[in-house]
Amino acid sequence: MKPDWRVALLFLGTVRAAREMSELEALYQEGTTPDTTDVDGTKVATLSQPLPQGKPIPRDTWQVDCTSEADGHTCKQSFDGNNSTYWQSLNTTTAQNITINLGKADWNISGLTVVPRQDQQAALIEEHQIFVSTNKEDWTLVAYGTWWPDKSQKLSAFQPQKAQYLRLSASAPNGIAIQDIKIYNSVYIQANPALGAWGPTIDLPLVPVSGAVDVQTGEVVGWSSWGYNIFVEGKSGKTQTTTWNGGKQSVTRRTVDETEHDMFCPGISIDQDGKVIVTGGVDAGQTSIYNTSNHEWYEGGMMNTFRGYQATTTLSDGRIFVIGGSWNGGVGLKNGEVYNPETNAWEKINGAQASKMLTDDQRTYRQDNHAWLFGWTGGSVFQAGPSEMMNWFGTSGSGTTAPAGNRTGDKDAMCGNAVMYEQGKILGFGGSPDYENSEATKYAAIIEIGKVNETAKVTQNAGDGMQYKRTFHSSVVLPDGTVFVHGGQVVGLPFKEDQAQMTPELFTPDPSNSSGGKWTPLLTNTIVRVYHSIALLLQDGTVFTGGGGLCGDCEANHFDGQIYTPAYLLKEDGSPRTRPTINTVSSGPVKAGDTVELTTDSDIKSASIIRYGSTTHTVNTDQRRIAVDLKKADGDGNKYTFLIPGEAGVALPGYYMLFVLNGDGTPSHSKNVHVVA
Ligand SMILES: *[C@@H]1O[C@H](CO)[C@@H](O)[C@H](O)[C@H]1NC(C)=O
Ligand SMILES: *[C@@H]1O[C@H](CO)[C@@H](O)[C@H](O)[C@H]1NC(C)=O
Ligand SMILES: *[C@@H]1O[C@H](CO)[C@@H](O)[C@H](O)[C@H]1NC(C)=O
Ligand SMILES: *[C@@H]1O[C@H](CO)[C@@H](O)[C@H](O)[C@H]1NC(C)=O
Ligand SMILES: *[C@@H]1O[C@H](CO)[C@@H](O)[C@H](O)[C@H]1NC(C)=O
Ligand SMILES: *[C@@H]1O[C@H](CO)[C@@H](O)[C@H](O)[C@H]1NC(C)=O
Ligand SMILES: *[C@@H]1O[C@H](CO)[C@@H](O)[C@H](O)[C@H]1NC(C)=O
Ligand SMILES: *[C@@H]1O[C@H](CO)[C@@H](O)[C@H](O)[C@H]1NC(C)=O
Ligand SMILES: *[C@@H]1O[C@H](CO)[C@@H](O)[C@H](O)[C@H]1NC(C)=O
Ligand SMILES: [Cu+2]
């Protein structure tokens, strides 16, 4: 580890003075990040991001064209290798383009770097779009988003594209400037729509270590920590957040300090109203709540026990349960407590015992981290991991704990994933015995739960295990009941990218096979997603993957997200399939056992509801898929009904995405179904 001021700050911890915080802040606002790179003899601050895959394309044969040029700052000066020159557009708010002809058609463009003007902080590019083209007429959007406004080197990485032209388009209040631009060439990854498709990349102003999907807008709300590229230990009282809107193709950013909460390494649960309840982390007692009705944050009650790396889940009665979290606020004694949204207060339930779910991690502050929690019937919580031992927690009165059996055949699976892909059926997979420096496993188990306190049924070595060893990976369940798994590493090394897994895979359940299903590799991509990365299912049935890093000058920061489009949305030639459409869904909240009516534009074969997800540190206790039994109504048209499962807690209260699938397995865009306690 490089000795630097950041490490010193980490150890200063909670005693760090406020003055030092403001100094540090000033440093960041100026873009004077600790790591630098040499560009034509100038030390340029970097954000310590891995460069796009491949090598820079030689610039001597480039032909370039800009929409405007300020006096003496020509387009060509953006790549003349002279550190005292730059291209500057006219001082205008209209979008400015720089279009580069790379001279030949067979480049595999994998990304670019952009160095802003270094002599002063001016004409910085924030919002931008990046297109490529083979003919300078048809442009493909490969990346877009917002860069943090400072003088550090900017970067965009995307799935390698065969192209001859690249265009960067950006608008800013006073025009834009570029001192240096480099474009990278890599190896083309053969497109194969049967394995899905990657892109576009969404450039973000911060590393999204945590995120949730807004149940009203479908936006991804992501956040880092106090800083956009770094965290500090000890109270900092604020968080950098970003909001991505896929429909508008917009990325905004906002510092949230109204809840005085550094929401780095928190617990997250989306409650029955769709509010995102974020607990603890760096500011370990705090609760911050994102109100999806007005897109504002407000303060929730303080937890009784201070926590970081805890897990939380919504309960069948609408309250929120939390347990574990010794990464912050002291080691051990992190028993359960519950939050009541009506009183905005927490209450301890010591009978839900964290000591029963400890792993053997050699670092004691890790043993109760990131529990795999599933709210279930009668206010219960099933804990499927990462400890080999599984438990039932009861949340009435002062709480209870009962053993649920062992995930036999597996060991402790720190930073593994657990996904309820169908009511009562959980796929638990990957992870490693210790949190760090420990080899990951391919192991997968199907864990089936029924009545509270009953031993769970475990199908060992599901699908004969994953194709790749993974820890620090992320997963989402898809409308058809398959589970998409992405990223991770062979050995868990926080803030390092060695032995990263670049090929995602899919679990397809098959109850007729004694191994429970099969694993299939999907299309490889080029952006590493390991420690501190996330994945979320979106309303349109695609997947957002993003983040990784947040460690200052560590070379592992990923200020982006990328969209994965599953094969079920693609034709053989890669163009989009025609999707079925949900025309109407019976409105208003529904309860356990209620009937939902819907109409569609075409014949439907199956349907499912998937609870909106939130994720950080491999934990997503919010997502869950309920396979529903679709009945076609008598008479005319495409009118259907289905029932919400009869026992409250199976379909945990909250917002769900309803997807209908046609005979080809193509899902619709979702519509909301709101289940309440
Ligand atoms: C530009 O590069 C030269 C070396 O090529 C270096 O001496 C000089 O300091 C650099 N100028 C700036 C402004 O960094
Ligand atoms: C770099 O640009 C400056 C300003 O135009 C010019 O004076 C200088 O000679 C250039 N340096 C080189 C090495 O071309
Ligand atoms: C800039 O690029 C965008 C995207 O290709 C295009 O729509 C727009 O017309 C271009 N603007 C100009 C002035 O060429
Ligand atoms: C651009 O114009 C604005 C408004 O007239 C002015 O305040 C600003 O200084 C100008 N910026 C540059 C780089 O000339
Ligand atoms: C692009 O990638 C392909 C591999 O798919 C490789 O054969 C080709 O040489 C690459 N082109 C360039 C210019 O590097
Ligand atoms: C959430 O937003 C809605 C809509 O603006 C508002 O009526 C409600 O009071 C907000 N809830 C809280 C707890 O702030
Ligand atoms: C589950 O077991 C615990 C501990 O034995 C017990 O206190 C609790 O009442 C049981 N819950 C149910 C629903 O049976
Ligand atoms: C369950 O796992 C724990 C911890 O690994 C072990 O001590 C215990 O013997 C196991 N129990 C059974 C029945 O396998
Ligand atoms: C059952 O699934 C396993 C794992 O995918 C596979 O190897 C095996 O061939 C399957 N068996 C049958 C009978 O299909
Ligand atoms: Cu963390």
UniProtKB/TrEMBL annotation:
Family matches, as InterPro entries: FA58C, Gal_Oxase/kelch_b-propeller, Gal_Oxidase_central_sf, Galactose-bd-like_sf, Glyoxal_oxidase_N, GO-like_E_set, Ig-like_fold, Ig_E-set
SMART domains assigned to the protein according to its UniProt record, in alphabetical order: Kelch
Highest taxon in the source lineage: Eukaryota
Keyword annotations of the record: Signal
Pfam families: F5_F8_type_C, Glyoxal_oxid_N, GO-like_E_set, Kelch_1
Signal peptide coordinates: 1-17
Protein name: F5/8 type C domain-containing protein
